[in-house]
Every structure is written in C-alpha cells, then in structure tokens.
Amino acid sequence: MKVRVLGSCAGGGLPQWNCGGDNSVRARRNDPDVPARTQPGLAVSTDGVRWSIVNASPDLRTQLASFPPLHPKPGTRDVPLDTIALTSAELDHVLGLLVLREALSFRIVSTRWVRDAILEHNAAWRLVEPIWGAASLDAPIALDRAGALELRFFPVPAKVPSYLRELAKPHAETTTGVRITERATGARLAFVPGLAALDSATMAELAAADVRLVDGTFFTAGELRAMKPGAPDAAAMGHVPIAGADGSLAALADLPGRTWYVHMNCTNPVLDATSPERARVRRAGVEIADDGLEIEL
Ligand code: MLT
Ligand code: MN
Prior knowledge:
Elements: E1 2-7, H1 22-28, E2 41-45, E3 51-54, H2 60-65, E4 81-85, H3 91-94, H4 96-99, E5 107-110, H5 112-121, E6 132-134, E7 141-142, E8 149-155, E9 176-182, E10 188-192, H6 200-207, E11 211-215, H7 223-227, H8 248-252, E12 258-262, H9 276-283, E13 286-288, E14 294-296
Parallel strand pairs: 3-4, 4-5, 5-6, 10-11, 11-12, 12-13
Antiparallel strand pairs: 1-2, 1-14, 2-3, 7-8, 8-9, 9-10
The structure holds D-malate and manganese (II) ion.
C-alpha cells in the first residue's frame, strides 16, 4: 500500500490567515524549519495508478495539482480517483468536495450520520449527493474499484462539529477513524485525524496497525488560549493533547510499527523542526507528518 499525505496541518493550515503566532510568522517568511502546510488529507493506492482519498480539505485543488499521479489522462477527463472517504463532517475534512464539483466520476463514502448531517443542513452539498454512499461502523467495504483495499470506519471519542452543534445530536457515527487494509498483503493503516480521548477501543485499533497517523492538533491542552484569550481547551475542542499524563504521546510511544502525527494546529510547537517539543516527540519514536510524505507499507 502506498500512502501520500496530501495535507498535514489542521483546519486553517500554516500559516493560518489570521494568526500572527511564531509558527505562522516564520512560515510566511519561508523559514525552512517551519514549512507552510496545507489542510488535512491522505491519498492511498496499491499500484500507484488508481487512488482513493481520505478527507477532502479546502486545499484539495492545490494538493491534486502538486501530485501528478492524480492528474487526468492527457486529452481526456479521466482522473484515476476511485473514492473519497470522510472521517467526520468537520469543515476541514469536507469542504474539498465542493472544490471537485465539476465532475462526479468518483464516489464518496462516510457514515450515515456524517452524510445526513451535511446534506440536511447545507444545500450546496446536494450537488454531490448522487455519488455519496453510507457505510456502517466496523463493516468492511471496498475502498477502490478493484477491491484491493478494504476500509472500515471505527468510532472514536470526539465532538459534533461546531457548525452543527444545535442542529445534530452526537452519535457513535459522528467522528470515526479509518482502518485501511491491503487485501493481498494484510498491511494495515489507521488514520485518526480527530480524537478527543484515547479510549481502549481506539488504542486497540492503533496498536493493531502497521502504520498509524494520529491527531496531533495540540501539544498542550491550553495552547490555543495562549494565542487567543478565552479560547476553549483541547478537550473542549475534541482533541487529546500530545503532552501530559493523559496525552497521546505516552500511549503511542510503546506501540510497534510506525507512527506519525497529523492535523497539527498552527499553534503547535512541534511544527518548528528545531523545537524541544519536536525533539521530545521524536525521542518517543513518533514523527511529524509533512505535506507530501509518502509511506509504503
Ligand atoms: C477540529 O478539528 O476541531 C475542527 O476542524 C475545528 C474547526 O471547526 O475548524
Ligand atoms: Mn480539524
């Protein structure tokens, strides 16, 4: 299985347009230690020819432009894209569907809750309704047309997206991780870009994967408040912090296989390659995913 990180940052990207924090300032100055990053998503393939995507960020247009394997065949409108799978209804995971609205030559899959919550409350998404299927939690489905990759959505602790808060009730299907397995080899990827707490079921999913890409939004619980007085903490925003006794790093450090953080917020000190926080993550055997990272498993 081949995995390409299309975008490694959380919603807002780096630099985030309204942020004058250290990371955003340095990214604007093209500091090589704090490279600019796009909003979150992955592409996966078995043969490097046909691809599927997990999560459609608002940056999908530029992410596709900078990835030739997903360009249309010259002289045609044939794009080698099979499926876009969505782990939640968060805007940084779904706005890209509207960016691709010129053609509906692929299919979309999410849980029923995610599909219905978006379609019921956002008229523009009705454009993509005809290609949008729902999958049950923990049920294996074919991700690609050839059936070489199997995808399962598994439930993770999280939150209802803020724009849906008064409109939709929380449900086990609100936020998921994905397990993607290559049928021929058994190689297994877990991708969990939003995670409020590391419960035992999520830990078991992460532990059983050969490669895992995990929510690294915040390094510490109060990080956003330091930039934005009155901001909620990480738990209220649905993200387990990296550091601390209940943080994700302590739990991920001992796992076999390979682990990357993804979906880092622009405030996260790990985005500075020279920071002590980055060094601490690496000492625990965990890496920070960059835009364009390619992983083979
Ligand atoms: C999140 O990851 O918590 C959301 O993407 C935040 C948002 O609403 O932009
Ligand atoms: Mn997000």
